[in-house]
């Protein structure tokens, strides 16, 4: 099989798997395929030179139209350029998606730490006091804790919205990976 055709077939096969094509591991496969495609540039240059030499030699021996060789090589070059462009685009989109998921993952991890901290703070609160000074101090502590819980609730809502946005953006495969960590 011709190398550039093999690369095209592998990209088409990758596209055919649907949502799984947006899996984080797919980025490495696409980068590898992009490198393979880029490595075809040298053999293409050699082929182009050989075709030019053959066209020149054919003209010297009286063959009037051997330019179709050059046209064939140019067509292969165009296909290679197209494939390289599609792979570059795919890498860019996968990298953007991976970055978005990483940021979401960091947000969720921070949120888990904050919620654990609030739980610890609640667990370390003293039993209700009996004298006025202790009760007022506890009221102030409780008010601060309620404010922190409210802010944490806002952060939870932000995380939920960010997760929904990722799913709506087509990163639901990434969401499976992210939520499998929790």
Automatic annotation (TrEMBL):
GO terms for cellular component: cytoplasm. InterPro entries: Spectrin/alpha-actinin. This is Uncharacterized protein.
């Amino acid at each position: 099989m011709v190398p550039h055709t093999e690369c095209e077939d592998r990209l088409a096969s990758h596209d055919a798997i649907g949502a799984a094509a947006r899996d984080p591991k797919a980025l490495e496969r696409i980068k590898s395929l992009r490198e393979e495609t880029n490595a075809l540039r040298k053999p293409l240059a050699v082929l182009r030179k050989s075709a030019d030499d053959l066209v020149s030699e054919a003209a010297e021996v009286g063959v009037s139209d051997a330019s179709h060789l050059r046209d064939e090589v140019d067509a292969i070059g165009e296909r290679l350029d197209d494939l390289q462009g599609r792979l570059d685009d795919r890498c860019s989109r996968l990298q953007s998606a991976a970055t978005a998921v990483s940021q979401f993952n960091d947000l969720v991890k921070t949120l888990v730490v904050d919620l654990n901290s609030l739980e610890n703070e609640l667990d370390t609160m003293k039993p209700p006091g009996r004298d006025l000074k202790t009760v007022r101090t506890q009221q102030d502590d409780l008010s601060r804790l309620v404010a922190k819980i409210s802010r944490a609730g806002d952060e939870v809502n932000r995380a939920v919205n960010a997760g929904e946005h990722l799913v709506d953006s087509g990163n639901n495969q990434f969401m499976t990976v992210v939520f499998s960590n929790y």
